Amino acid sequence: MAKSQSASLDRKKLMADPIMMTTIVLLVAFLTIFILYPLAILLVDSFISDNGLTLDIFKRVMALSNFRRAITNTLKVGFLVGIASALIGLLFAYVEVYVKLRTRFMEGLFKAVSMLPVVSPPFVLSLSMIMLFGKAGIITRFLLKIYDNSVYGFWGIAIVQTLTFFPVCYMMLKGLLKNIDPSLEEAARDMGASRFKVFMTVTLPLILPGLGNAFLVTFIESIADFANPMIIGGSYDTLATTIYLQITGAYDKEGAAAMAVVLLAITLVMFIVQKYYLEAKSTATLSGKASRERMLITDKSVTIPLTILCSALAIFVILMYICVPFGAMFKTWGYDFHLTFKWFGQVFTKYKGLKAFKDSFVLSLISAPITALLSMIISYLVVKRNFKTKGFIEAVSMLAMAVPGTVLGIGYIRGFSGGLFGTGILQGLYGTGAILVIVFIVRSLPTGTRSGISALRQIDKSIEESAYDMGADSLKVFMTVTLPLIKDSFLSGFVTSFVRSITAISAIILLVTPSYLLITVQINEFAEKGSFGIACAFATILIIITYSSVILMNIVMKYFGTSRKVNLEEN
Amino acid sequence: MAKEKKGVRLEHISKIYKDPKTGKDFYAVKDQNLEIEPGSFVTLLGPSGCGKTTTLRMIAGFESPDEGEIYLGGEPINALTPNKRDTAMVFQSYALLPHYNIFDNVAYGLKLRKMDSETIKKKVTDILALVGLEGMENRMTNQLSGGQQQRVALARALVIEPGVLLFDEPLSNLDAKLRVSMRTEIRRIQQEAGITAVYVTHDQSEAMAISDKVIIMNKGIVEQVATPQEAYYYPNNKFVADFIGECNFLKAKVTGQDMVEIGGTAVKCATGSLSAGADCDVVLRPEGATLSDMGAIKGKVDYSCFMGAYQDYHIRIGESVIKIQDYNPKNKKIYKVGDEVYLNFEDNTLYAL
User: Fold this and answer.
1) What is the pLDDT at residue A11?
2) Pairing state of beta strands B164-168 and B87-90?
3) Residue A526: pLDDT over 60
4) pLDDT of amino acid B108
5) Mean pLDDT over residues A445-449, rounded?
6) What is the Cα A13 distance to its own chain's centre?
């Protein structure tokens, strides 16, 4: 038996479709050059020296005590943050799905908690943590009269990261809990199990893989995080910050590359376990749809304590975000609480704020539509078409999710500063706005692709086939059928990518040149210097931009989206 | 209506798939040779997994054959993409474009063919009248019933006047009654349009009602190509006999030209090419025998049930049990469980395999 004829026919059919062919070739080239190549060059850098293959560079960095310490630090933080986030996420998800929340106020709190981390720059919580609990912190200094409290270090990072990442777990687990068929739990109740017993013997085992999944996703996020350890880490260095200092401070490019390889190896292993083992397992156990509405728990002895616990946490998180605009309006944080606009003024008069906002805004606005379109094209190819390099395209665009920004940044420095393989090809890219746009695209591509893929899986394959069969070519099918049907997903991909880009820092901070001023880099700089007023003013304006773009997206979707008008049949 | 009716020819077509569980390759379709006459209505019939849909999708171009060549109107089309083939398919799930209204759905193929809007309007109006959906142009697809959606799908395929129309189990999502009326409708429209049609179904009564020819497939292999009557009365083998209608197999021995012996009793039976002395299975349709107090073969009633149109019996003859449907039971004697009865075969109803 030989499948050679069908393979060659499929190839011929592909060749007869030049648009599809070109798209695939360009995609493969893009993914290879801008994702695989920079990572490969890190391996080359760290394993090959003048006298061939060597482990010397690794031996050298492993001998550095600060690097060894950074590894344990990172793992310790990641572990704690992963567990804490998964548990708090579970608490919120459980309360939302199982417990009767009577008030709109509570619903609003839950919504805010799930929304805030999405629209805010990554290090906002670090800023407010310092402002609330630091030496000059309002809570520590003025309420508790503690004058020498230090938030910097392990606990600072761990708390801030947990508060930043638990909403992601909450959203993930909420989806899983909603898929549990209520009759499973009712059957257990019926046989005499108490509510707690039901939770321990039915609910928990069912979502255990999902809980593990949430833990690993947060773990990866935590060890890849650069901004929070940078601001609140103090002398407690993590891998991301150590790598950054190795290249910006010690100018040790090979060493930084080797360190980046170590960080990448950790995230990659975690990612593979998460993606190919846990994710499959968690959806396999809970593939069923809930057969009907769940009877919500109304028992006061359950609802009251859970409601209080959740609202306290939610209010605390919201408080931390609110702290930022106030930080921008107080004359001197911690000493003089007169309201003033001088920081906002200084942003624009003294610190070239206008240019920073323009640069960040324009670069993000260029990258957003490209990312959204690219991820829709990739999802279309992956879900709806069959061709040889499909596996490659899917794997590499998902792989980008496991690559920490710092690692990508080092990869770009090593890979493009001298052109491709040091030959000078594409060298012109280095130091321009174009490479920043490309980094934005690569960083947002996995999220966009993932949402595109899940949107497209909802659509019956034969809808596109019918258009193809009627005589439409690939481009026509994509433009007249696929894209209109996933308009919402495209739009949210656009906005998500914009928000992610304008708030990005980890890779960008390594690649930006003085000709571009980026808001996040500015905030980082001022926070480092301790100019919290300016940092907060920058951050406040940034949050306003991201928040309004999300609001705008929701309005556009409400009036021009597809999903409300078109009731897609699920077959 | 069609520009040109086209015939379809499959020469030594095979398709190999990988079994997802074992990882081994297997033939989904094996060495298939078919000649579909222009203008005829041909049905690919078989149980699920027999390769009928794969065959249809190879004709449409969604799958590529691993061996052999497919011809459409005499031209080899193996290397053509679906959009370049002169075929139009009606999908099981209808596959209407949910963001377009009925008019735009039907006009989709015409617009791709760059026709002017006047022509498109006329063609769409005409075809919607043909399928009985006049005046529905502005509805959205989710405002239609399943049967109406099916008509839109049919109109959309017909309007581009394809050389051959392909149907992939188009009625399987409809309820039983609608299924029966839609199949007559499809047959009428195909006749009026004078178009070649290839139809896939696993429902044998649907296949019989609608087709000029049925192609019975099993495990990737064509078991028989015949008119519905031929397939019913003269099945090639036990699989076909069993799949097309209900049937009993009686162990017998050929004794001469068109004569067999069943349990020692000589019975008239078409023997085809079987020679005297050969062991054979006699195909007996449930309606091919009546019961009486005396006759050829003796048996005992195991089960007796009134079904309206017929009395349903299970008759035990020696070791085996035979199903008999005795039609119009009102004027006949009804046997009860335990009664002794004799089977009488109607003329020309038995066929030996």
Assistant:
1) 84
2) parallel
3) yes
4) 94
5) 91
6) 38
Size of interface A-B (CB pairs under 8 A): 111
Quick one: pLDDT at residue A1? 62
Contact list, B113 vs chain A (CB under 8 Å):
471
Identify all chain A residues contacting B160, using CB atoms and an 8 Å cutoff. 470-471
List for chain A the helix, strand, coil content (%; round to 5). 75, 0, 20
What integer best gives the mean pLDDT of chain A? 86
Model-level ipTM above the cut of 0.95: no
Nearest Cβ partner for B97 among A16, A467, A565: A467
Q: What is the structure's pLDDT at A363?
A: 94
Q: What is the 3-state secondary structure (H, E, C) of chain B?
A: CCCCCCCEEEEEEEEEEECCCCCCEEEEEEEEEEEECCCCEEEEECCCCCCHHHHHHHHHCCCCCCEEEEEECCEECCCCCHHHCCEEEECCCCCCCCCCEHHHHHHHHHHHCCCCHHHHHHHHHHHHHHCCCCCCCCCEHHHCCHHHHHHHHHHHHHHCCCCEEEEECCCCCCCHHHHHHHHHHHHHHHHHHCCEEEEEECCHHHHHHHCCEEEEEECCEEEEEECHHHHHHCCCCHHHHHHCCCCEEEEEEEEECCEEEECCEEEECECCCCCCCCEEEEEECHHHEEEECCCCEEEEEEEEEECCCEEEEEEEECCEEEEEEEECHHHCCCCCCCCEEEEEECCCCCEEC
Kindly list the structural domains of chain A, giving each domain's residue range(s) and its CATH number in brackets, ordered by start. 1-37+341-563 (1.10.3720.10), 59-337 (1.10.3720.10)
Answer yes or no: do A481 and B84 touch at CB < 8 A.
no
Average pLDDT, chain B: 90
Comparing alpha-carbon positions, the chain B residue that sits nearest to A384 is B62
Query: A291: pLDDT confidence band, cut at 50, 70 and 90?
Result: low
Domains of chain B: 8-238 (3.40.50.300), 248-352 (2.40.50.140)
Quote the CA–CA distance of A258 and A247 in Å, as a whole number: 11
Q: Kindly report which listed range (A20-34, A192-206, A215-229, B40-54) carries the lowest average pLDDT score.
A: A192-206
Q: For the whole prediction, is pTM greater than 0.90?
A: no
pLDDT, tens digit (0-9, with 9 covering 90-100), for B79-119: 898 999 999 999 998 899 988 999 999 999 999 999 999 99
Q: CA B175, B176, B182: angle at the middle one, nearest 5?
A: 85
